[in-house]
Design a protein that fits this description.
There is one protein chain. The chain is mainly α. The protein is built from three helices and three strands; from the N terminus they run αβββαα. It has one domain. A three-stranded antiparallel β-sheet has the order 1-2-3. The protein is elongated, with a radius of gyration of 15 Å.
């Protein structure tokens, strides 16, 4: 595999992983903006297409830092849903 092919594969893998993270990061579909190839969340203000991975991590930490340690995922999800509902009110 040439260096150019390796770079193209890495870029394709990066895109797929960002896309999966955007889809499954925990906010509901109404918060996701994906027109014209965009991958943005209007709730947590993450741009999964352009933000640096460390910036995505920091924004995620800010989003979930109020969640107590040891909380079950169902509790985390319920809190995120309630926060989105409150934001829509």
């Amino acid at each position: 595999m040439t260096a150019e092919n390796e770079r193209e594969k890495l870029e394709a893998d990066n895109y797929v992983l960002r896309w999966l993270l955007w889809l499954r990061h925990g906010c509901n579909g109404a918060s996701l903006y994906g027109d014209d190839g965009e991958m943005q969340c209007n709730t947590c203000m993450i741009d999964f297409k352009r933000d640096d991975p460390l910036d995505i991590e920091q924004k995620w930490i800010e989003k979930v830092k109020h969640i107590p340690k040891g909380a079950r995922w169902s509790e985390v999800f319920e809190r995120m849903v309630k926060a989105e509902q409150d934001a829509d009110s």
